[in-house]
Amino acid sequence: MTRFITATIAAITLAGAAGAADLKICVEGAYPPFSETATDGSVVGFDIDIANALCSDMGKECEMLKTDWDGIIPALLERKCDAIIASMSITEDRKQVIDFSAKYYNTPGRFVGKDGMTEADLEGKVVGVQRGTIHQNFMEGEFPGIELKLYGSQDEVYLDLVAGRIDAAMADSIAILDGFINTDAGEGFAFFGGSYSIPKYHGDGAGIGVRQSDTDLRDAFTQSITNIRESGEYETINSKYFEFDIYGG
Length: 249
Fold this sequence. Notes:
A 6-stranded mixed sheet has the order 1-6-2-7-14-8. Strands 11-10-12-9-13 form a 5-stranded mixed sheet, sandwiched between helices. The chain has a 3-stranded antiparallel sheet with strand order 3-4-5, with helices on one face. It is globular. It has 2 domains: 128 residues, Periplasmic binding protein-like II (D-Maltodextrin-Binding Protein, domain 2, 3-Layer(aba) Sandwich), CATH 3.40.190.10; 94 residues, D-Maltodextrin-Binding Protein, domain 2, CATH 3.40.190.10. With 249 residues, it is of the alpha/beta class. It contains 10 helices and 14 strands. Strand 4 and strand 5 form a beta hairpin.
């Protein structure tokens, strides 16, 4: 059984105004630019804007629940939320436990380390990854000899990379670029190696997670993804964060 299934349910804090909602959406709040916590405590980012756009298209009032990554699938299964919109990749392992809408974006994984580092330099080094992610599975499958250090959030990975407690990190390329390399903390760091998008590890893109019994909700999200792409709303949200179409092939 994979780690994300057995993870202890983390504390869940309400993000946004209280009140009745048609749907509760689990979001993370620690994965910029997709999801991050603003100074006022609200959760913002690409995932959040997409969630709001989909809810509006479906005619639903939605409430965003900030949820630790380790506990996000357990929270869905415990009915603390109705869907997960948190850059969660659609993988066969996860589909044994929950169901997914069609993808709403797809980007590859990459390594980041000190400028000038190469994949050949990884031998004997420590690589940080967020626990319970496709990137952990990828590293364990493709780089079994590399020592891994696991973290509860991607922000914690970056903190230890800057502090020198790890030598490199593996994560989503866009999360690394906009959440680290293009920030002050990322000065002196750069991508290295190839771009990785191997289906058995990386799945079929990021989708919206729902309980396996909620097929109507799954299909409604899939239809709304199509609707906002056709209406141009997806492109508007996309261009707010990225200079290319993140939807992918």
